[in-house]
Amino acid sequence: MTRLKENSGGDDSILTSTITMTWAVSATNPQFTFSNHQYRKLEEVTIICACFSICAAFLVLSMYCYLLKYHPTDANRVSLHCVIFSIILSTLSQALNLAALRSDIEIGFCHAFRVMDNLFTLTSSCLLAMVGVYLLLLFHFDIHSWPCRPEFILMPIAIVYAFFGNIRSYLFDDTPDEFRAIYLEIPHLCWYNQ
After folding, report:
1. Does 158 reside within a domain?
2. How far apart are CA 69 and CA 63, in angstroms?
3. Bridge partner residues of 8 (DSSP)
4. Residue 98 burial by Cβ neighbours in a 10 Å radius (0-12, 13-18, 19+)
5. pLDDT at residue 193 above 90?
6. Which of 15, 86, 145, 153 is 20 to 30 A from residue 45's alpha carbon, by CA?
7. What contacts 78, CB < 8 A, 6 or more positions away?
8. Is 59 within the bounds of a domain?
9. 17-23 and 2-8: which strand pairing?
10. Where are the transmembrane segments (predicted)?
């Protein structure tokens, strides 16, 4: 279906060659092809954004630790617990992204990265949605009594939802052929093929 031609480049980046693609007549033309230089810029932006995200997360987590130590009653809120857990999962997801930038697609980390990154991303979003659900139940429907701490119910629901939301991608790689043509397949990069 595809044929890759490599033209040697002069620098020692992770992509030391410019990869061009020639598609069979029946295949769809790739929509997101870019040059080696543009790919390196995409990597740089990913690294910068991930570092900003991790630094901001550590700042928020340190403020939460301060609250736990000096104002424990203010830190003991259901919505705050869900947000902090969401930040922790988001930080792990960003750390995995940084590690995957320099990982080979053939190693076991790459498969684990695909599974964990999807799970962390969806669980983090679900936890933030659970904050909204909790506040809606609390203020609009006046539900104040729970059988246990609400986060002991809301957090497992978010994790189960994220697992079932990703279960098809865990079991099958059934991407249609026409969608495989959307991205340039670089066989040695774990992060790009995620």
Report:
1. yes
2. 10
3. 17
4. middle
5. no
6. 86
7. 134, 149, 150, 151, 154
8. yes
9. antiparallel
10. 45-66, 78-99, 119-140, 152-171
Residue 14 · residue 5 · CB < 8 Å: no
Ordered DSSP codes for 125-187: HHHHHHHHHHHHHHHTS-----SS-THHHHHHHHHHHHHHHHHHHHH-----HHHHTTS---T
Q: Which residue has the tokens 């740089």?
A: 44
- Is the confidence at residue 18, as pLDDT, over 80? no
Domain of residue 87, residue span: 2-180
- Number of domains into which the chain is organized: 1
Rounded to 10°, the helix 151-171/78-100 angle is 30
| Cα–Cα dist 132/142, whole Å | 14
pLDDT at 70: 94
Quote the tokens at residue 190.
């774990």
Is 190 within a domain?
Answer: no
The neighbour count for residue 81, using CB atoms within 10 Å, is 20
Which amino acid is present at 45?
V
pLDDT digits (tens, 9 = 90+) for 156-177: 998 898 888 877 766 666 555 6
* Two structure tokens written together for 163: 């697992």
